[in-house]
Design brief:
12-stranded mixed β-sheet; 546 residues; 19 helices; alpha/beta
């Protein structure tokens, strides 16, 4: 038997041509259909709308989450639906889900309840094939590296200094560290490993490239390793950036979908925020801004990860400036961070709020209400918001869709249209040294005492200095469960250090990845993964996918 939400979904979904027309797009020329309910926006359309003025940009971020997430995507969709209800032309720009969480523990990333995007099953699974294209481009480069060495290694690549690794869009911890090249007399065995596609450099490039020409250039700039003499080797040296770009030429076009209430959603790109930069593609966000009066977008995990990278990497690269920021919280996460004490756990919200203010953004806290939240608990949260002077709203977007976020939407419209200075400030300047950048984030955003570097990290820092890469932004790879690099230190920890174990130079993406704590670039499945629960019935309908 279908649930009420499934019945509503089936009744509400519109042909994607209608959704395109709501954005003033020509359904015959501005989109290419991928079935009846999803489409890609054409290059001609993206070029044409580039002259349109920008609408207002709203970022949705969150407090430090529990392992189940606090409904950031649901709040983004609910807010977008509420803005539409208020009569504003609205678009939502979101990331594409990775199959890792879908079949792991978090589940899909299409929102939930009456605030979700459709067709949910398609988007959570293969969608329009973008992740597969990214995986293929990544692994083509890996194959070219090993083939070059096999065929005589005219570039003098040191097999022990190859830094670019294979990827796949699935949690598979057994592939994190492997040996390759064991078959055949001419193969050279070497250590390698897979990372999840959402954390690949190709994904980062895909989400930061402004157009096809820039995509090709950035792909060619990837450092794949070093020669025996220590000089870097780039993907362009292997002459495969053109073929990689061919694999991505359709994928780089943003995807158009819809919410349960018919609000347009541009879904494109999907880097994680704990091990990558956590934002949907620049192309999707810019297209949404050109097509609507209000664009709602989100950045992964807590504001210490997703929002910081949204500001310091994406906004800096793309010239974006948010007009408002929404900080999502739940009673569940407050209690989790405070050892079941709401007053204590609210310190985590205060930390995220204070951090966001450092970027000179106008923001509002939204409490994502769950059905089991008590009036007493919600009353305590309200009192604390007044005590900390934090503007706030409650939302029942899951249960009530757009109307459950009307209070939030009204506050956002007011914020977006006030005359306050909203010029974005960054956590660091590009002219700072890499260590200065890391220190500023560690102390000013995380609250750490100092930063400790491993011997391996210090070696990479010397290489960065020698190669002239110090002016790049940095992408911190850190646990999402704590402001520190230790997932056990909840709430607002103090008296801790940040330990940098490794540093990865990503010259294609144009940033430096700083590996802290025990962060994994290839996550594993939990003891009871969602993969054991998802099924398909005799009619082909998918069961338990959410």
């Amino acid at each position: 038997m279908l649930s009420d939400i499934e019945i509503a979904r089936n009744a509400a979904i519109k042909p994607i041509k209608e959704i395109a027309m709501s954005l003033s797009l020509d359904p015959e020329n501005d989109i290419d259909l991928y079935g009846k309910y999803k489409a890609k926006i054409t290059e001609e359309c993206i070029s044409r709308i580039s002259e349109n003025p920008n609408g207002k940009l709203i970022l949705v971020t969150a407090m430090s989450p529990t392992k189940y997430g606090e409904g950031k995507t649901t709040m983004s969709i609910g807010l977008g639906q509420a803005l539409s209800m208020l009569g504003h032309k609205t678009a939502i720009a979101l990331r594409e889900p990775s199959l890792g969480p879908v079949f792991g523990i978090k589940g899909g990333a299409t929102g939930g309840g009456y605030s979700q995007i459709m067709p949910m099953e398609d988007i959570n699974l293969h969608f329009t094939g973008d992740f597969h294209a990214i995986t293929s481009a990544n692994n083509l480069l890996c194959a070219a590296i090993d083939n070059h060495i096999f065929q005589g290694n005219s570039l003098g690549i040191d097999p022990s200094k190859i830094t670019f690794s294979r990827c796949m869009d699935m949690n598979d911890r057994a592939l994190k560290d492997i040996m390759i090249g064991l078959g055949g007399k001419k193969n050279i065995p070497r250590k390698d490993g897979f990372r999840i596609t959402a954390a690949s450099e190709i994904m980062a490039i895909f989400c930061l490239a402004g157009n096809l020409n820039e995509l090709k250039e950035m792909l060619g700039n990837i450092t794949i390793g070093y020669k025996f003499g220590g000089e870097p080797v780039f993907a362009r040296d292997l002459k495969v950036e053109g073929s990689m770009c061919v694999l991505l030429k359709e994928a780089i076009r943003p995807n158009l979908a819809q919410t349960l209430e018919g609000v347009p959603v541009i879904v494109h790109g999907g880097p994680f925020a704990n091990i990558a930069h956590g934002c949907n593609s620049v192309r999707a966000t810019k297209a949404a801004l050109k097509l609507s009066d209000y664009t709602v977008t989100e950045a992964g995990f807590g504001s210490d990860l997703g929002a910081e990278k949204f500001f310091d990497i994406k906004c800096r690269k793309a010239g974006l400036n948010p007009d408002a920021v929404v900080l999502v919280a739940t009673v569940r996460a407050i209690k989790h961070n405070g050892g079941e004490d709401i007053v204590n756990g609210f310190k985590n919200i205060a930390a995220h709020f204070e951090n966001l203010k450092k970027f000179n953004v106008s923001l509002v806290l939204v409490i994502n209400r769950f059905s089991d939240d008590t009036d007493e608990e919600l009353g305590i949260v309200s009192s604390l918001c007044y005590q900390y002077n934090i503007p706030f709203a409650f939302s029942t977007a899951f249960a009530d869709g757009g109307k459950g976020s009307l209070e939030l939407a009204e506050k956002i419209v007011e914020i977006c249209n006030n005359n306050e200075d909203k010029t974005l400030k960054f956590a660091y300047e590009l002219e700072d040294t890499i260590k200065e950048k890391i220190k500023k984030i560690a102390k000013n955003i995380y609250g750490a005492n100092k930063v400790i570097y491993s011997e391996k990290a210090e070696e990479v820092l010397e290489r960065i200095k020698a190669l002239g890469y110090e002016n790049m932004p940095i992408c911190m790879a850190k646990t999402q469960y704590s402001l520190s690099d230790n997932p056990e230190l909840l709430n607002r920890p103090d008296d801790f250090d940040i330990t940098v174990k490794d540093i990865v130079i990503q010259t294609g993406a144009g940033f430096i990845v700083v590996m802290t704590g025990d962060i994994m670039i290839m996550p594993g499945l939990p003891k009871i993964p969602n993969a054991e629960l998802i099924d398909v019935d005799e009619n082909g309908d998918i069961i338990n996918l959410s």
